[in-house]
Amino acid sequence: MMYLNLRATMVGATVLAANIGIAVAIVLSLIIALDINPAVSLIVGALYMGIASGLGLNETVASIGEGFGELMQGIGIPIIFGIMIGMLLARCGGATQIATTLTDAVPSRYVPYALGLSGAIVAVPVFFDVAFLVLIPMVIALWQETEHSYPVVVGSLVIGAAGAHTFVPPTPNPLAAPELLEFGIGEMMVAGLVVGFPAVALSIAVYGRVVSRLWDSEEDIADIPFDEADEEWTDRPSFIASVLPIAAPIFLILLQTTTEAVTGEPNVYLDFLGSRIIALLVGLLVAIVVYVRSVGRDELSDAFSEATRPAGLVLTITGAGGAFGFVIQETEAADALVDLIGVSGDGIVIVLLAFLIGLVMRVSQGSGTVAGITAMTIMAGVETSVAGSAIALAALSGGMSIGHINDSGFWVVTELAGFEVTGGLKTYTLGEAILSVFGLVGAIGIAVLV
User: Fold this and answer.
1) Rg (CA), the chain
2) Which of 40, 98, 326, 413 has most Cβ atoms within 10 angstroms of its Cβ?
3) 78 φ, ψ (degrees, to nearest 5)
4) pTM
5) Which residues cross the membrane (predicted)?
6) What is the pLDDT of residue 4?
């Protein structure tokens, strides 16, 4: 970027950058110090950001509504269906059946790595939020069967799902990287696999040691959901039946993305079946069948009622986070930050710069997708001999780096895992931050060797 945009020129790039920090500080203070509801705190922070940055009173309010609505349009219904699938599996014993089977198959000390791998495999064809929504009931049940601490098992799932979502096509950002930076999709696939999966394993190892020193169960856990009595149902569904509600949406989404990647052309029927709403609806219908066969119909209505309570809370907070991030985008404060950084240098400096731009965009506006795409788009204008896959991995790592209160994924993890805000920071934020560092190391390695 050669010049500041109009709003940045009128208000001042430094002021816009400072407003991001102040808005985040306001939200954190309201939540942590005053114990204000996160959704209310996020809206207050969004109001400050818009008004202080010159967006205008009415435009700020309109942007809050638009940001909330846009995010809900994309993930609102999938969140509801995902929570219902998890609740049905938990109440009929399916989640525990899966957990017991996995526990018997995997040595206890390797459980976090198995969870990370499971999250990674599931997240390759789907978005992070869908992978977490579908797998978190299983992870909670598995935690009850092992000696590992709660933040370790949840954090391992976060790291695995985030790693595949960030590095491995056909998820959106790594799929867009070859086109933006003009290199082959095969190169991105190989680089993503070679860097992504080792980064996940190393991150889980480091994360487990770090979080054990920071965790405080009384302060960091609010109320763990999907918690069933050990033998509430004597007729648990089989392992295969328990897995089907999870496997069905994954299969449909994978079928759609793989077919389009191979043929290069969309298929209207597969696009329909592989959409997150329809795929998760199919999974929910399968979960209903599994539940009724195991428990009966009498308590089905109660199970749905129980699922709507956490769904409403997650939707409210997630939507407010989307509103906060959208207002920041509307003020163009993130663009002002990028303009202040500038673009210059070569060699490893280019890799570090791609990471930094992604990091700034992630911290300032919340969306990892927006952060990664923006960083790669900016770096596409830089002439360099560094491998495109190295620049892509660095930008994507920076775009994943520090997800916090303005990131919808943060609230999905925090609320569905039953954490306080501090618990979310010590799992979602910490886990992804560690993973981003290993991703950057891998990007530097490719830049040096290729």
Assistant:
1) 22
2) 413
3) -55, -35
4) 0.68
5) 12-33, 39-58, 70-90, 110-143, 150-168, 188-207, 239-257, 277-295, 307-328, 340-361, 373-396, 428-449
6) 43
